[in-house]
Write a structure and sequence with these properties.
Blueprint (H helix, E strand, L loop, with lengths): L3 E2 L1 E4 L2 E2 L15 E4 L2 E4 L4 H16 L3 E9 L5 E11 L7 E6 H4 L7 E4 L5 E2 L3 E5 L4 E6 L21 E6 L7 E12 L2 E2 L9 E4 L11 E4 L4 E8 L10 E5 H14 L5 E2 L2 E3 L5 H6 L8 E6 L4 H5 L6 E5 L2 E2 L3 H9 L6 E8 L2 E8 L1 E2 H11 L1
Parallel strand pairs: 1-15
Antiparallel strand pairs: 2-3, 2-18, 4-5, 6-7, 6-9, 7-8, 8-12, 9-10, 11-12, 13-14, 13-17, 14-16, 16-19, 17-18, 18-19, 20-27, 21-22, 22-23, 23-24, 23-25, 25-26
Length: 371
Amino acid sequence: MKSVMLALFLGGCAFCGGIVGARFQNGADLHADGDNKVAVPPGESVRLGERFETVSRKISPAVVSVEALKPGKKGKSVDESGSGVLIRVPGQAGVFVITNNHVISQSQPQQITITLHDNRILHPVQVWSDPESDIGLLKLEDIESLVTAPLGDSEQVKVGQWVLAFGSPFGLHQTVTHGIISARERGQVSLGNTIRIKDFLQTDAAINPGSSGGPLANIDGEIIGLNTAIASHSGNNSGVAFSIPINMVKKVVRNLLDKGVVSRGYLGLQVAPSFESADAQKLGLERLQGALVESIYPETPAALAGIRKGDVVLQIDNVVIRNENHFINVVSSMDPGKTIKLRIWRERVSREVNAVVGDWNAAQAKLKVSQ
């Protein structure tokens, strides 16, 4: 599959400077679609508009704008801006802001300014970040008057359902747009070398520079995603935007609060960045599926399990691997020390091997020491 180049939408710029181009009713009217006709019930659009208004009133007080002062070139500081949303975390005191790491990275708490819906200005008392998933977390003092937003379940999100996007595009605070979920599980996108964990919700809700970290809400007023990137030639909205599923955000937030870092699994192999139908046919596969192993690092769980270059990983335990990005996400989500069963395709035959999941953070630390 081919990757799509995206733009991370910071205020006034996209991903550290340059725009990254994309590859890329009321009444009872009847709308014809071939032989099918869909009736629009009387007043349905009015009721939908009322739902939009209700969700906007519920979520908007929890939406914030985020500005961060960062070190720039030649010793000069630069301002970056984005968005965020106020939440509470069960078992944790205080109020937190979830946003994108690329909005707040390299900034100290005193260099980050959070503007509330009523224009009050706050600074975080603590900052956490996970560059690999592009999730940032800020802790605020527990002020009773702060309104927080409820978090939904992104596993229940369906393609075609209505969503509302909140944020501060072009510095226009408290902006709300609407659209639908266009697709799920979008991972074949390129967002730079640091962002490795990608499993986006795609939406056509209008999102523009400055919206990074703003919430994507469902029609029930629950946060289901964190707006992160757009596919665009110009850097502005073209109807293709991507949000981090809120379930992934929840897991990262819990890890950051419990451990200070996100614990991720590791096998020690490199998968090919693209695996096309023609490649699958040459290897004797009936369909395009799995992740093609490009290289194995020595003395790693993959090497000890006997996995070889040219193998195709088809399944991990009971999870059928769709593509290379899905493989990375599945392995990363596993606990270090767990024994897993991999079904691989080698020399036109399906085989099974066992492997013990390693620790990604420990492997990265070891790599830095050896360099």
